[in-house]
Specification:
332 residues; globular; 2 domains; single chain; 37% helix; eleven-stranded mixed beta sheet; 13 strands; Spore Coat Polysaccharide Biosynthesis Protein SpsA, Chain A
Length: 332
């Protein structure tokens, strides 16, 4: 990391590590190549059993927080945020490679648009062996009426169709830049920014939703380019994925959705649930599905308590339809 021009870094990069293997050192190498260098790196390790920390332990630019067990992604990010000094916070997955100007473009956007609380870049796909692809992982997140996040542009070839700055619903937590001021406003308890009840998955979407309800914007910045493997541990059809995905989606909806929108979208929510149930039955995960619903029921008191906090602090009742032209904030 280059010499800092100030004692307190402008940006804190937080990586939650769990058995990252060789991905972690490659991710850190891409950080070290950044043209922007006013940052600190905090790695929160959730009791990894591999050697992923060995190559980074001696780096003076990296601070490591070691947990005795796997506390999950949400709790790990919260730990990192609570130790971070930066005005801006970048949540970063270990299976990401940043191009050299990624940080510079996102920080510049934050300085240019004070209404923006979250910024995300052009995230393209990468093979597990490190081969870079000209295919989108996402160009920002959308949240349609069935309330399952859509990765804008997912699977499409990058032909320049997403080369304009645009307001989107949210940023995938794999590489999302947050303004500290917004994060502090969105806390749902002392030191709790991401909802730790989620453990992993949907905690970033939940934070995005709270941010939009609080009047903060999320900006897609196409000049900030990164490459992402995605699901390196291949969890997508496991009991773990079914349990956490279905439970957390409904926790998010219950905590954030306004009653009017819930009634209006009820048909689409139920159609999505039928589709998810077919998926679960096809993959033989019905027991995990039932467990997810049971956990959702048991957590209902804490979810409703969170809902009361979120809705009472909301400045915007309903979510607009994204994407929205950047002119919305540049003309105001």
């Amino acid at each position: 990391m280059g010499d800092h021009t100030r004692m307190v870094p402008l940006l804190s990069i937080i990586i939650v590590n769990y058995n990252a293997g060789p991905y972690l050192s490659k991710c850190l190498a891409s950080i070290e190549r950044q043209s922007f260098n006013d940052y600190e790196v905090i790695i929160v390790d959730n009791a990894s059993s591999d050697n992923s920390l060995h190559e980074v332990e001696g780096k003076a630019s990296v601070r490591i927080i070691r947990n005795e067990g796997n506390l999950g992604y949400a709790a790990g990010q919260n730990q990192g945020i609570n130790h971070a000094q930066g005005e801006f916070l970048l949540s970063l997955n270990f299976d990401i490679i940043l191009l050299p100007d990624f940080l510079r473009y996102l920080i510049r956007a934050m300085h240019t648009y004070p209404e923006v609380g979250t910024a995300t870049g052009k995230i393209l796909r990468m093979q597990p062996d490190g081969q870079l692809m000209n295919k989108f992982d996402n160009a920002g997140l959308l949240l349609p009426r069935q309330r399952v996040p859509v990765h804008r542009g997912e699977g499409e070839q990058d032909l320049g169709q997403y080369d304009n700055k645009t307001l989107v619903f949210g940023a995938v937590g794999a590489a999302a830049l947050y303004r500290r001021q917004m994060i502090n406003e969105l806390a749902i308890g002392e030191g709790r920014y991401f909802d730790e009840d989620f453990f992993t998955w949907y905690e970033d979407i939940d934070l995005d939703w709270r941010g939009r309800l609080s009047g903060w914007e999320c900006l897609y910045v196409p000049d900030a380019v990164a490459y992402h493997v995605g699901d390196p541990h291949n969890h997508s059809t496991t009991d773990f994925a079914v349990r956490h995905g279905i439970r957390n989606r409904w926790q998010m909806i219950i905590a954030n959705e306004c009653f009017h929108c819930f009634i209006r979208n009820c048909k689409w929510l139920m159609l999505e649930e039928v589709s998810l149930l077919r998926f679960v039955l096809f993959h033989g995960r019905f027991r995990a599905y039932l467990r997810a619903l049971g956990e959702l029921f048991l957590r209902m008191p804490s979810t409703l308590k969170k809902r009361n906090h979120v809705r009472s602090n909301a400045k915007v009742s309903c979510l607009p339809v994204y994407p929205i032209a950047l002119e919305k904030i540049t003309s105001s």
